Each structure stands twice: as structure tokens, then as C-alpha cells.
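User: I'm preparing a small set of examples for a lab meeting where we compare how different chains pack in three dimensions. I only have the primary sequence for this one, and I'd like the structure in C-alpha cell form so I can line it up with the others. Please keep the answer compact; I'll paste it straight into my notes.
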Amino acid sequence: QVQLVESGGGLVQAGGSLRLSCVFFGRTFGSYAMGWFRQAPRKEREFVASINWRDESTYYADSVKGRFTISRDNAKNTVYLQIANLKPEDTAVYYCAASLRADEMAKSGRGDYWGKGTLVTVSS
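Assistant: Understood. Below is the C-alpha cell output for the 124-residue chain.
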């Protein structure tokens, strides 16, 4: 059984930065690709970024390229999402997900396991 627990969300002013964390509990962390998704108010959930476990290749949504950085620490069973230059439109619940392939997460917008999310609110 896999459990994902996100943290790091909060209220931030536009232009600020945040680092979200997601700790993986359960099966071998190193077997899974990890990803971040977000759901803004009154919008559907969307893919943000993903990272493979073997070569740590990464995938990003076009809307976040250049500002968001995904990384993982296999020794800590943790994946991170560093967000720079936050904008009000980044306000959303951010979810961590695990699946077998990062590219498939990017294409399908789906994951096999999900965390409960952490809220990021960006004030203008």
C-alpha cells in the first residue's frame, strides 16, 4: 500500500517562492515515477510536473516551465516542487501522485496513487 503526504503549502505574495514536499510511504519509492498536479478553484485538475525514478528525467506543463522545478531525494522517499515567481493564477490545491512512468503521467494526467493535497494561495 502506498501513502503520499504533501506539505509546504501556504499563503504567499505574488513574486514569492515555495517548496512543496511529498513523502512516500509504503512500497519501494525508487520504483515509481512521481508527479505533481494542481486543481484551481472551479477548474479541473491539471498536470504540473513529473520525474522518473531511474534517470530522473523530468516533464513539465508548458504553463509552468521556467518557474517550477521538480526533484526527488530517493534516500528520503521525498519528491519536491520548487515554485518561483508565484502568480495569483498558481493558487490551487497541489497534489502529489505516483505512477510507473513520468511521461505517461504527463500525457494522461493520471496517477496510480494520490496524496490529499496541500493548498497554495498566492495574493496579488
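A couple of notes for your slides: The chain has a mean pLDDT of 94. The helical segments are 102-108.

User: Perfect, thanks.
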